[in-house]
Amino acid sequence: MAIDSLVLGAGQEVGKSCVIVTINGKRIMFDCGMHMGHLDHRRYPDFSLIGPNFDQSLTCIVITHFHLDHIGALPYFTEVCGYSGPIYMTYPTKALAPLMLEDYRKVMVERRGEEEQFTSEHIVECMKKVIPVDLKQTVQVDKDLQIRAYYAGHVLGAAMIYAKVGDAAMVYTGDYNMTPDRHLGAAQIDRLNLDLVITESTYATTIRDSKYAREREFLRAVHTCVAGGGKVLIPSFALGRAQELCILLEDYWGRMNLKVPIYFSAGLTRQANMYYKMLISWTSQKVKETHSTHNAFDFKNVHKFDRSMIDAPGPCVLFATPGMISGGFSLEVFKHWAPSETNLVTMPGYCVAGTIGHKLMSGKPTKIDLDKDTRIDVRCQIHQLTFSPHTDAKGIMDLVKFLSPKHVILVHGEKPRMATLKGRIQSELGIPCYYPANNETVSIPSTHYATAVASDAFVRSCSNPNFKFSTSSWEDEHGSTSRNKNFIPRLQVTDDRVAQGILVMEKNKKAKVVHQDELPLMLGEEKHQVKFAYCCPAHIGNLQENQETESSGLSLSSTNDDLLQLLSAKLANEFSEGSLHDFGEHLQVESFHVSICLKENCPYRLRDVGVEEKSEAVFFCCSWEVEDEKLAWKIISMC
Amino acid sequence: MKFKASSLDEEDPKCSNRSGPFDLEEPLVRKRKKVERPLDANDLIYAEPWYKTVKNLHLWNTSFIDVVLISSPMGMLGLPFLTRIKGFSAKIYVTEATARLGQLMMEDLVSMHMEIRQLFGPQESCFPHWMKWEELKLLPCSLRDVALGKDGGELGGWMPLYSAADVKDCLQKVQRLKYAEETCYSALIIKAFSSGLDIGTCNWTINGPKGRIAFISSSIFVSAHAMNFDYIGLQGNDTIIYSDFSFLNATEDIEKDHNNFFPTTHDFSCPRNAENDGQELAKSLLHVDDNMEETQKLAFLSSHVIDSVKVGGSVLIPISRLGIVLQLLEQISASLDVSALKVPIYIISSVAEELLAFTNIIPEWLCKQRQEKLFSGQPLFGHVELINEEKLHVFPAIHSPKLLMNWQEPCIVFCPHWSLRLGPAVHFLQRWCGDQNSLLILENELDVELALLPFKPMAMKVLQCSFLSGIRLQKVQPLLNILQPKVVLFPKELKLINSSKSTAFSIFHYCIDETLHIPSLKDKSELEIATDLTFHFDWRNLKQGNISMTRLKGELLREHGKLRLISGNVQQSSEIRQLVHWGSPDLERLLTVLSSRGIKGTLRKAISGSESENASVVLVNDPSQALIEVKEMNTVITATDENLASIIFEAIGSILDGI
Fold this sequence. Notes:
By secondary structure, chain A is an alpha/beta fold.
C-alpha cells in the first residue's frame, strides 16, 4: 500500500497551495489556494487532474488557514466547479476566510475591473458547506478517515492537519511558525507516528535572529516619522499582520505616551478586530490570560479612517488594504503620501512580482509609473518589515526531527532552497525527502498492521521484566577478557523486554497471539517436554589447578561439596552474580542445573572410553533446556 | 489495566453526585418544643454554611483512584474536597470550558464565604456548635434528616468549604481537554463530547484494548446556547453508563413516560435489522420539542419580569445555570425594548465580569446559531452589546462604589447564590421581600419553603421554574437505538425497561456505594502486528490440519489505546528452534528419522529399578555415544557432543508437534 501525493499547487513555488493525498483509498485535498501572481488559468490549481467527478474523487477538503494562497480557489472549486463534499477548517478560519475572499473579490472586480471569478453569493454558499473544527478535536470524517488540527501559529486559526486512514498517517503543516509572536503562540503538535509530513519551506535556508530587534527597528522608524510630523502608511492584509502590528503599536504608544492617532481603513479591519476579540482563545497565552480585564484587540488608540482625512494635516499611522499596494485604498493613499519625504511606507515581508509593493522592495525607485498616464514621485521613506510569521529553516528541521516521519515532502518554497533543505533532511535526519513540481505525484509506501487477538498471558508476559545480568567481562564477546585477577567485574543489569509469542492461524478464525505455555491447552494436547541431561565427568585436573593457586593445602580427598564450590567460583568469573545461583546442593544458571552426581548408575552418564578407567571419578550431573543450549555446553566445557 | 468497568462504577456515584446540585448547607433548625409545628425562621441555625459532598468520601482510599472525569462546572464544585486529600494522585480530565467556568464558580463561592465570615465571625473549630449532639437532638424531624441523613449516618459527611488555596491546588491538578480531543491514560483513550446541558458540559468515551465505554451525564439534545448533545460521537461503544439523574427532578409524570417508553410501532428488540429506517426515526424523535418548550418558559418568565417592573417592582434572579441566565438576559432585554421600558439590569458577582467575558470567547462550545454569530462577526451573546449600550451593568459586589453611584430602582438583578443563604441575593431579598410588586425567580429544584424561611413574611412574588436538565425518559430508548450498545448500566432508581421484553443489549443497575462487575465483552486484547515482522515468520502447519502457526518476536508498544508489536530493536534470531512440543513420540519413527540423519540407535527398555522406569531408551553409538530417554510426558537427550545433541533434538522435534 502507498500514500500518493499529487501536488496541484505550491510545488517548487509559493502560491495556490493545493495537495491531493490518497491514503488507503481516501482522497483528501489539503488547501485550495490561488496564485496571486497570475491572472490567467495558472491562478488556480489544475483541478482536472483530480478526476471527472470531484464529489466521488475526493473524500474531503481541509483548509489550513485563511490566506488567499491557501483558500482563494475554494469558492471557485465548490460553486463553479461543483464540489459539494465536506470541507473542514478551524473556527477562526471559517470566520475570517469570507472577509479575505470578499476583499480580494472587490479588489479584483471593482478596482481592477476584471472578470468575476466568483461572486459574493458564491462565497456565502461556499462557507455554508464548511464544518468548523476545534484544535485537537478528533474528527471522524467517515468510518476510516480521521483528521485533527494542531496549532500552527502562522495566523489566527492556522492549523497543521493530521490525517489517518487505517494504519497510515500523515501531517500537512500548512504555513506555520515555530516561535511565538505578539499575538500568536508557536506551533504545537503531538509526537505522532507518521508515514509522511508535507511541510512548507518558505524560508528553507534562512535562519532568523531574534524578532525583538527587528520589532524595535520597526517601532523606531514609525516613531521617528510621526515625531517629524510625517504620516505612516502600513499596507497590510486585513487580518493577521495588521493585528500583530497594532498590538505592537498600542503597547508602544502606551509606554511612550504617544497621542498620534492610529487609523484603520474603512470597515474591514475594524470588523476583523471584532472577530479577533471572540477568537482570543486562539491567540498567545499572554493575550489570553489578560482578556477578561483587557481584551488585547480592544485597541484604545485606533480610530476609523475616512477618505477625507487623507490630506488632513498632522502625523498619523494608517493601516490600509490591500497589503501589496496592488490597488484599492492603500494605492489611493500611497499616491497622496509617497511624494513627501517626511512620510513612511512600511512593507510586509513578501510581495508578488508586478505589484507596487514589489517595486518598492526591490530597490529604491524615485518614480513609479502606475499606468501610462500616472506617474508617482516616490520621496517617502520605505521600511521593510523583516519579521514574517513563517518558520525558518531551523524551525522546519526541528519540526521534522520532532515528528520523525518516514518521508518528507516539501512544498510552498523556492526550488533551489528546497533542494538545499532536502539535502539537509536526508543527510542530517536520514529521512527520504521530495520536493515535487506542480502536477507531479510522489508515491511513498505506508505502514500497515495486521490485527490479531492477543491473549492475556501473552500481554502479561510482554510486560514482565526481562533482566539480564552481565559483567563487563562476560559482555566482551571478542574474548579479550581481562586476565587481571584483581579485575572486579562490574555488574550490568539490562531490561530489554522482548515480546515473544506464537501467532496461530486457524481457518475461518481470527488470528490469535498466545504465550507458548498456553498452546498445548489451546490445542487440546499434552505438553511434551524435551530436555537435555548429561552427567559429565569432572575434570578434576582443571579444578586442581585452581586449588593449587588458591589453597595449596587441599588434597584429592576433598569433599564433593568443595568441588561444587570450586566450580561455582570458576563460574562466578564468567557469569555475573545475578545469573548464577548457588543453592549449596546445586548450582543454577538460567535453566542450567548442575549438582554432584551421587548415583552409582546415573542414566545420563555415558560410558565413554577413558572416563571409565578412573574408578574414583566424580560426576557433575547437568540438565538444561533447549533455550540455554549454548550456555550449557560452555559450562560443561568448564567442568 | 485497572480502569475497567468495575472501577468505573465505583467512580460513578461520585460523578453523579457531583453533577447533581451539590448537597449544600441545608439550614439546620433548632427545635425548641417537641411538638411538630411549621418551621419558622428562629429554627434555623445562623452559622457559616457547611457542605456535604460524596457520601463516604472518607472511606475511600483516594490513592486507588486512577482517573476522575468531570462532566460539568457544577460537577466540579466538590472536586477540591477530593484533590486535597493526602495521597490523591489521579488524573483529572475536564473540558477547557468546564475547567474555566468551574474555577469561576468555586472562586465565587469562596469569596461569598469570606463575606459571610465577616458576618458570623471567624470559623469555629472543626466541630461547630450546631453539630453537638445536644443541639441536633432538638431539631425537628425534617431538619434532623437533613443533618443526619435518613439513616442517621451522614453527619460525618459535613465539611466546611474549601479554601482559595484548595481551589488553586485543585485546578493545577486538572488536565484540560478540547472538544473531542483524544487523551491517553495508560492504554485508554478518553474523549469528551458535548452533552448540551450547559457550556462546556460533556459526556465521555473511554476506549481501551478491552472494550469501549460511553458515559452519559445529564444531556440535552437541542440547546439554545451550548453545543448540542453530540450522541453521534458516542456511537460504537459496547457499554453505556447512563448517569443522567435529571429524571429524579423531572416534573413530568414518570408513569406516563414509562408507558410511552415502548412505542409499539418501533420495537426495541430489533433495531438492527431496519437500521437506517430506525435510526432516522429515532433521530427525528430526539430532536422534537426540547427547545421550543424552553423558549416558551423563558418568554413566560420574561413577561412576568416586565409586569413587575411596570408596576415599579424589582426582580431578583438568583439562578445558577449560566446558560439560562444568558438567555434570560437576552429575552428580558428584548422584552424591555419592546415595552420601551428603561429599567437597568445588574449582574452582581465577584466573577461576573470574567464569566461574561469568557462566554464570548468560546464559540467552540456553543450551539450552531451562536456559532453563526461568530461567522457573521456578531458577539456570541447579547450581553456584550447590552453592556456597551449601558443597559446592563456588571459589578463585583453590592458595595462597589460604582454600583452605589449607578443604582436605580426598579431594576432587574442577576446574582448568586441560588440557596438564598449566601451572596448578594440575601441582601436584595431582605430589601425586597416586603414589596408585593417585586419578583423572585427560582429554580424548581430548591425547597422553597425552607429557602424562604428567613425572609418570612414574604409579600414579594415568587416564581419557580423548572428548566430541562437532562434527557427526557421517552428519549432514552430512541437514543439507545442509535447508540447500539451491548451493555447498558442504569442507575437503580431508573427501572425503565420491562424485563419481559428482550432488548438488544443487557441491562445492569448500579447504586451508590456498590461495585458492579460487568462481564468483560472482550476477554482478549487486540494486537496490531507491523507487517515488516511478517518477513521473519516461519509458518508451521500442524498435523491437526487447518491450523498453522509461527513464532513471533518483537517490541510491544502501548500507544493510543492499542497494543502494537513492532520490530523495534529486537534481534530476530536466524536459527529457529522449537521451544514447545506436544503429542507423543513414536519410537519407530524416531529411529527412522535418526538414521536418515546418519545416526544409528537401538531401542531398549530402561534399566529396571532406576528412576527412569516406564521409559523407553534409545541408545546411540554412532557417530558417538548418546542416549535418548523417552517417557509419556517428556524426553531427555544425553550426549557428550553438542552437535549430536542438537541433531537429536531436531529429530525429536520432527516427530512431535511443536513450535
